[in-house]
């Protein structure tokens, strides 16, 4: 069969852009970025983060989309095909499998957290947070986490919606979903920023995010920023490589990559500008950690006029953002399976989704029945790590950087210069040279350092 003939293509460059930005914008931007910034000292972290995106993540993203489009298949088959074209060892196919497996593993716990946001849409809409105090808010959150049945069901509902979208294919499923959800997400986000600007302490939030105190930058902040940048832009695994395979030839990969990374960073900063003014106005703690939007923010929603509406809107935003990312996490597995002879998209999606849901139950139980179960507890690095923590660690701290580094090595060192020039549609001018320098030297070294540090 001809390469790529198993798959539909995006109907336009704009459709691809929406889907790729949808993949990038997710829990990583709205849940993780504000709290990680809060914990790591604000402006200094933001500065390092932006530098990581530009110097490390964009060059790898270009490499990833380039490999995806040239291969035209799922990450595994694309890597196998390119290894052959470029006369490289056939074991490079493993890099594709690594991407598929990493995406699948992230999906299993991503869906659990996304389930919290669905639960919070209902909780906020019901008015549960009206006039609540910090203890009350924490009780609601802890109550949800302690209940494996409802966690499992919300996780199931979220996975079900993801499966529904993916089962309908690239044009009728993914494209339609992102065309509705991504613009709505931007509108909701702008409404929330507008609200925060009027009702919150906007100036303080702005200073918090953009005043750089260089003394706060240390090795650890840099490491966290690199990891966060990878996760947030969806780089290093099979997600965008798969989306790249459906990309028409006339689309410029370097331009698209910059737009994707810029949009992702913009949303993260806007999320910060929606959240911190409220945090400051209500005297809450910016360095609260993972509970920032689930425990802290609802206290403010419960006190502010119209808070039930604003709060519900906020969690709808979070659910939308998560869904446009989760579909890109399920798609790599599905794309590989439909390349198998006679395997149809709908049953394959159901099998993959149900499997991800089942594995995700391990993360569900990590917050209650298995809270004390630390499978690798004998190793000091993994002491106190639950199944959820381990999966998150494995995927985010090991598989993403490893995948990213290998993509950089393959695209920068092992593919012929001619192939990459041709695929990027560039001449051997300054843009190409800057990219090639970054992807050969800067990105792999930076990621290698992070990788070593995380293992140490
Ligand atoms: N980028 C997504 C987010 O910010 C998560 C993700 C990671 C999606 C890797 C696909 C691949 O939430």
Q: State the helix count.
A: 18
| Biggest pleated sheet | none
CATH fold node name = Hydantoin permease
Going by helix content, strand content and strand pairing, the class is: mainly alpha
Shape: globular
CATH architecture verdict: Orthogonal Bundle
Instruction: Provide the list of bound ligands, each named once.
Output: phenylalanine
From the N-terminal CA to the C-terminal CA, the straight-line distance is 46 Å
**Could you say how many structural domains there are in total?**
1
CATH class: Mainly Alpha
Short account of what is shown:
This protein has helices spanning 13-24, 27-39, 43-71, 75-85, 93-125, 134-145, 148-167, 169-199, 202-210, 219-233, 238-245, 253-281, 292-303, 307-338, 345-366, 387-414, 417-424, 430-455. With 456 residues, it is mainly alpha-helical.
Describe the structure.
The protein has 456 residues and is an all-alpha fold. The chain has one domain (13-455): Hydantoin permease, CATH 1.10.4160. 77% of the residues lie in helices and 0% in strands. The protein has helices spanning 13-24, 27-39, 43-71, 75-85, 93-125, 134-145, 148-167, 169-199, 202-210, 219-233, 238-245, 253-281, 292-303, 307-338, 345-366, 387-414, 417-424, 430-455. α5 packs antiparallel against α14 (307-338) and α7 (148-167) crosses α14. The longest helix has 33 residues, at 93-125. The chain is globular. The mean pLDDT is 92. Phenylalanine (PHE) is lined by residues 23-24, 26-29, 103, 106, 231-232, 234, 237, 239, 325, 328-329.
